[in-house]
What we know:
Blueprint: E1 3-4, E2 7-8, E3 18-22, H1 30-39, E4 44-48, H2 51-61, E5 65-71, H3 76-88, E6 94-98, H4 101-110, H5 114-117, E7 121-124, H6 129-140, H7 148-157, H8 173-183, H9 188-195, H10 199-213, H11 218-236
Parallel strand pairs: 3-4, 3-5, 5-6, 6-7
Antiparallel strand pairs: 1-2
Helix pairs in contact: 3-4, 4-7, 7-11, 8-10, 8-11, 9-10, 10-11
Amino acid sequence: xxxxxxxxxxxxxxxxxxxxxxxxxxxxxxxxxxxxxxxxxxxxxxxxxxxxxxxxxxxxxxxxxxxxxxxxxxxxxxxxxxxxxxxxxxxxxxxxxxxxxxxxxxxxxxxxxxxxxxxxxxxxxxxxxxxxxxxxxxxxxxxxxxxxxxxxxxxxxxxxxxxxxxxxxxxxxxxxxxxxxxxxxxxxxxxxxxxxxxxxxxxxxxxxxxxxxxxxxxxxxxxxxxxxxxxxxxxxx
Length: 237
């Protein structure tokens, strides 16, 4: 693997699965990429500087790409370009990596439509390396990872006007346990393990929760839960 100025060279064709980082050496340093590579020896860790470079690389390695991780330090147009790229190639797993909340807010406000947001995962860069590895393993397994910071910003910018907060009273005890796990960003597999349920049962509970709260998906259900919890805490203080 050749590295020059923090950029892993991508000219050589690869046959193994790959993760493509898009950004400069400030967010994705050579050391960061080498550490990531050491944790995923069966996956090629690659980096390019721009979306145009990414398109060139992906055009030759589309079948190998497992995730595309974009630095939020790039401009808003880069987020829109990523959205366009994912629309063209639905198999890609898009990830936004961020250092600061300002970067994250800017990236989120650039997103057009909820469909793309519902496919995104998020990678905070100011956490320990073992946390990064855990997040990447979750994403590469096919799950999404959404941080509490993302939910806070999403809740503040898109209040769940269509959600029926009174619907919480209709949830069963088990559905409330599942919803609490959803609000923490847990995957179906993790919820099933923690609550000693079959994964198919978890999916059924989530379907019932979405229906009872009059929301469209699990993300909106989690946002509605957090909003209801904040309302109760404010009322009791």
